[in-house]
Amino acid sequence: MYMRRRTSSLIVLVLTSSLINFAPARASDPRPVDVVSVTWPGAAAIPSTVQEISHLIDSDVNVRWKTFTTLVGDTKDRTTDFVSGKILDAPIELKIRMACTGTASSTFMYGVRNEAYKRLGITDFNNRYLVIVAPESGCIWSGRTLLGSPTSTNGIVVLHNSGSAFIITHELGHTFGLGHTNFLRCGSGAKDGAWGADCKAVEYGGVVDVMGNLNTQSPLNTYHQWRMGLLDDSQVKQVWQSETVQLSPSDFANGIRAIYIRDGQSAYWIEYRRANPGLSYKAGLVVFRLDPPPVSSIVSPNSEDMVASEFGTELGTDVWMLNLDNYTYVLSQMSGSMSALSATTFSGNVVLNAQINGDKASVMITKKADITPPPTPVLSNPATWIVPSAEILESGYDDIDTEIANFQSKIDGVVSNVKASEVENWYPTYLQPFTVPKTLQVRDLSEGSYTLSIRATDLVGNVSEWSDPVKVTIDRARPIVTSDFKTTAITGNQVDLAWAGAKDAGSGVCLTNIVNNEGVINQSSSDSKVPNLTISNGEALTGKAQVFDCLGNGVVGDLTVSTTVLSADKSTRSGKWSMGSSSSGITSLKCTGKCSASFSAKGHADVLVGAGAAVVAVGGKPIANIADSKLAILRIGASIDVGKTKRIIRVSGANFTVFGLNLVTSTFTNINNLDRLPTISDLSLLDPEQDSLGQYGFNSTDLSQEWSVYPMDGGTSTDAATLDLCGALYPSELKRLARRQVIATKKDSPYTFLSTEVVAYSSSAAAKQAHIELMKAFAQCTVNKGYIDASGVSVPYVFKEILNLPTGLVDTGSRLIVRAQIDTGSQARELFGIYQFNNEMFTGLYVMTTPEKTMTDAQVQSWLQVAVTMANRLNGKAA
Predict the structure, then answer these.
(1) What's the pLDDT tens digit per position in 482-527?
(2) Tell me, what DSSP letter sits at residue 393?
(3) Alpha helices in 662-717 (DSSP H)
(4) CA angle 297, 299, 300 (to 5 degrees)
(5) Model confidence over 204-258: pLDDT tens digits?
(6) Does residue 178 contact residue 227 with C-beta atoms inside 8 Å?
(7) 254, 265, 357, 377: which one has the fewest Cβ atoms less than 10 Å from its Cβ?
(8) What pLDDT score was predicted for residue 529?
(9) What InterPro entries does this protein map onto (predicted)?
(10) Model-level pTM?
């Protein structure tokens, strides 16, 4: 049974069982299982000792899993072997009883695991499993596990007042990412039906394999085998029309071993089971539903299932077994057989008839013919086609009965086939578990201006109507970018530059980002005429520069640009000169009568002048005239390109003022093509309160497009904790009015956790209280080198010094910056946290890595600069 089943990784088991003894066996994939126990004041004794549980791993659990993963005729050695590992003889004494539900339960599991391996002297437990034997704690469940994946090689199992090998076996299934085998039970006696008042989803009730809740030796169903990788996609036959399939038994390795059928909004998984001595089912087909029930249709002994969030469309870990014969499951007791040689879906559209021929079942599938064409495609507004990967079709074009096979376009009346794209960011759903759906993107269309219509064809040949025509212009050309920059203004130490070398002859340049090594956008320009950047005089701006046109075609390269002022007093002069005014830290020289000032420079130079008119010559040849001005302020009189070698630049005239030259040095290298990606909508920002908080922390424009930024689960409420450093108590948590915490993720991120958090407290005094509590917890944690959690398990912290703090952070008395290694061994992680307060507002920046990927000093400095940006936002400054 899932705990908060739609989002959590915790699975529990409520069951009754009896022990079955097996002989030990060898296998090729040894996975050590360590056993420890816990106790607390007033706790009862555990029903089985750790030595007895460890013995069961070898004598029972090992044999079961070896049987489940050894398939008839398998030429691959995929057998799983759970073997007994280390034992902790003395129980781990906790201060309080074990939590049964919620985050406290998972915290308990992690904490006990860390403490257990410290006592066992094992620092690397990434390839070990741990069984925690706990006494009676009032929990409804007998076993609890952290949900893993088919590639997992570790896990934590909690036995609650139990010594059952079957429970251990079941829970270890969850470490492979397996869900429960449940039961579809209709009160009317129907074998199948729509979820609702009649047909219910009985948790655990599909006792056809070990992932139900009754002790059985029956093989894993093929859906669970498929999820574990014990059968390939090619061994699952998707059926769209009537046909006959030769189906191998569920415990065989070769041949077609499962059938997938979609019937409207329902999905079916069919397997063939041989009769097995000692098991109640007959030889025949076993049918499972994959489309999940609404919460209102779930029957479960766990009340948490009744308030869980609804299932989504994603392909789940659970299945719901149909009763095709005389199977019953009542009060955790079962009888009869669930298999049969025939079945009909509740719509009547699909009929299955099987005939057993030797080792296989010949399954004749009669499916109602699909003669309904796909829905008529609707083209989205071409104004939204601003990136090559933008989908040009509105949602709802999917075929009801099958899938879209291909598209055709009609361009100015000419019909042709269009090579479709796969839907991006697709995940398997119960209606499409194998094949990525097809769609059309801007990049799939021909270049040019024309009138466009689209139609779709499904897998069985039905063709939709043509979409309404729209006029479109498709431009595939990318911007042409060179390293040509021109100075547009100098204010103080800041130099404004126009990237004159970034051009696009088609739709124009629409977005330019300068991105640092962490993927943080240091500067961005959306000026449609020319990108504008700002740098500090004498300092270099470096980073990955992304330049996109207005249709999302782009390039990326390594940019370096810097400016240096060559002041007028560094020139060779003729005529009468005197000291003039100063502007932006630059002192001018004023010419009386006829004068000239000569500079030696190369590359790009901007001539800085004040009042008066002048002529600019390079190598003795006049190339620019500076218009007359009566204002004695610094201005850019001319922009010139001298070339790669130094030449003499002469500024001459009468009665004018010169400040000098602003020299721009820039390179743009390692240029590659880059398509702009669509922005993912954050619906939480439709809430005005969340939108207001969103201006302080990460948003989608702060990070490069390979990063995704979205609210954490529970990140838009004050239900979850804000301050949790060193496990301290923070009474100020009750004084939070609103909260927004977002997480940033990308493929192959160097960080295990990257997040910003924004909190509005009820008052400045409440925020001040929070800062005081935080500093107190930090001081105590530093002295104690960690803390003891509520269960009595120690959590060590090793704090590191942080050097070279930048200017711009909030005042020292309103912040805390922490860099610490938390815990030890394989569970150690490094936290870099920056906590900043201003009036009633708080922002937190949290970066976490593993010890193997500890942050470099350069990375720390990068995130400190991000914290400066967040401080500016806290202080109401533009950032």
Answers:
(1) 999 999 999 988 999 999 999 999 889 999 999 999 999 999 999 8
(2) B
(3) 688-694
(4) 135
(5) 999 899 999 899 989 999 999 999 999 999 999 999 999 999 999 999 999 999 9
(6) yes
(7) 357
(8) 85
(9) Ig-like_fold (IPR013783)
(10) 0.81
